[in-house]
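Marked as duplicate of an earlier ticket. Keeping the data here for the record.
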Amino acid sequence: MDSQEIDQNTFSKVAESAETAYVIPGYFNLSYLQVTLKNEEKLKRDFLMYSESKGVIFCCPCLLFGNKSAFATTGFSNWQKAEERILEHTNSSNHRSNIIKMKDRGNTLGRIDNNVVRQIETQRKYWVNVLKRVVAVVKRLSSRGLAFRGATSKIGCNNNGNFLMALELLAEFDPFLLNHLEIYGNPGKGNTSYISYNVYEQFISIMSRQVLNTIIQEVKASRYFSISVDSTPDISHIDQLSFCVRYVNNKGKPVERFLCFLDQIGHKAEDMANAVFSVFKKYDLNIEYLRGQSYDNASNMSGIYAGLQAKIKEVNPLAKFVPCSAHSLNLVGTNAVDCCTQAVLFFDLLQNVYTFFTASTHRWKVLNASIKGLSETRWSARDDACQSLNKNWSLIINALNLIIYDETEKTLTRNEARGIISKLNNLETAFLSIFWGQILHRF
């Protein structure tokens, strides 16, 4: 440099992107580092450097290869005419000549920080390869609904969860990942490893947003859609409203997609309607294209005057309501059983048989067969219970007889077995077992 020697620490490159003009009082505007062409294309003036200590800007090529302009000597600080002067300097022949010299020098000799650039690129590729393996594990565990975390977050521990277990499994066949886990496996806080729960939780969040955006795009592309809404308490006893959409995709196939959960909405039809409308607004779904709505048979959902379906029809009369077929069929079965005392007693007997044998490992071993119990919500469990009773009828009778005549058993147990076998030996019980076995199998 002919004019003067400039200390390297004097300069600092300003932000690469200067779309928003931030003014430093008495100094310069970040917008000077960017120019907008006539075709609205924005280009960065990366040849300019700002000196924080002097409060002026320099032109790097002109400073290095010589120029009589203030941009190459004392520095430019006439901020009132900054745009005009910068543009004038940019179009000057000396500046363009220096730009070409700088590029030719770079093409011939390369950058003076080539080793640093090479090291940075090597590190970048290394961590990209690590993240590729992390993303693959996150995708597999998420698609199968498996838990990620364990009791600890240490590599080599048996209780470190599915995520770290999957990485350890891959490392057995991947030398790169094995070397990474050996070096960065248990780095502790403040050290980078990209295998901590903070990293994979960010990936889960990114993937969930991408999946949700894809669903919304498909719904908008198909235009017409229907909704299915239902509420149920989760494991922490908090009521959640699940929101699903149904539409025909671009392949002509009807698909159903889960959209979101809404927490603690309330059970009033008006509250649920406001929640549904808020979902439409949040995901920019046009309710005018809603053509169907399906809920269970509860009055707050299916009521024709004040239910959720009525609230939505006030906004869009074309949104036809179709009650949930599974719930309707479940109600038919429940009410059919409740109307018949013998049927109620029969299903109580089914549950008593299951409870009696599963209450003791010894009794289960004596039975030596598989029997099923009932479920409060799934009617298919009643079919499983009936089928298991019909299939293992003789084994159950034999096991009860063995328990009745076993003097080592408690008197209460023997009496309970005697009561069950007396009910099973009734003709009505045998008939109901066959009858409900046929009905529930079709049901």
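See parent ticket for discussion. The radius of gyration is 37 Å.
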